[in-house]
Amino acid sequence: MPWPWPFGSSGSSDKSNLSKKSKEEKDESPPGSPPSWNDLLPKPDPPLQAAKEWTPVFLTAVGSLAVFVFYQSYLKRIPSAGSIQDNYFRRRSLFGKVTSVGDGDGFHLFHTPGGRLAGWGWLRKVPETRSALKGKTIPVRLAGVDAPEGAYFGQPGQPFAQEARAYLSDCILNRRVRAYIHSRDQYNRVVATVYVRGFPFRKDVGLPLLKQGLATTYEAKSGVEWGGMEKVYKAAELKARAKRLGIWSAKPSDFVSPRSYKKEKQGQQQEKQREVEEQTEKSRWWKWF
Q: Domain TNase-like spans what residues (predicted)?
């Protein structure tokens, strides 16, 4: 009997003969015989076929996630100042309609993200009544600008307070503006640099107040938000002061800045409140006698 040559092709021929025999045995197996374990195991799909089946599912999931993120970031309406996330400040802007003007440097904004492209004005309506707008607007204060204080709580207003409020109303009331938000102040108002559409370019709402002498630049020593307009605002204030426009038309000795006026009135109000509390406490003691 000849011995098999280890370096020849007999090994491969033996493997092919075994595979042929197993195939022949499989073909010759009777019809009623149970299947083998190999036949019961699921056969994997070819890679290309699996990719074709899973690609639509993957693209749908990614597309849905992208739409959700886009909606949350750019189309979701912000109803109030407290709803604004901290990471929005100094990074984002708010587009909306001005529903009311409180004084010469503050107003209320109804956020309309996406503008007309998102259906605002023709598919989605902005409420018009005060009751319908309650709790749905954002109070905004102009950054770097301080207008004269108006009359409130029985206190008289400053000169040119009505003129400043009238200008702001004529400029932005019932119009759409874009507010670049910087921070939230102690009164829960959003401090922002505000622009309104003009021709041919958009217009900074706060700058004309300074040019016409209807406001001063904000006087706080720290924490003032300028929106990159500090030099422009202060230059406009100096020109109005040199021309003696608006609030600068009074004698320098009689001039009281809005910030100083507010501090003075707040001090008087606190003093009155303290007197009322003292009188109440005295009346309680007298009741014991």
A: 92-250
Residue 159 CB: number of other CB atoms within 10 A? 15
3-state secondary structure (DSSP) of residue 101 = strand
90 included as an active-site residue: no
Q: Which of 163, 165, 176, 189 is catalytic?
A: 189
Catalytic residue among 141, 165, 225, 237: 141
Residue ranges of the chain whose pLDDT lies below 70: 1-45, 50, 67-74, 153, 266-289
Is the bond preceding residue 200 a cis peptide, omega within 30 degrees?
yes
CB 239 within 8 A of CB 211: yes
Distance CA 91, CA 257 (A): 31
Domains and CATH numbers, the chain: 81-266 (2.40.50.90)
Q: Which of 149, 163, 225, 237 is catalytic?
A: 149
Q: Are strands 106-111 and 93-103 parallel, antiparallel or unpaired?
A: antiparallel
Annotation marks residue 219 as catalytic: no
d(CA 112, CA 109): 9
Sign of CA dihedral 55, 56, 57, 58: positive
- Model pTM? 0.72
Q: Is 149 a catalytic residue?
A: yes
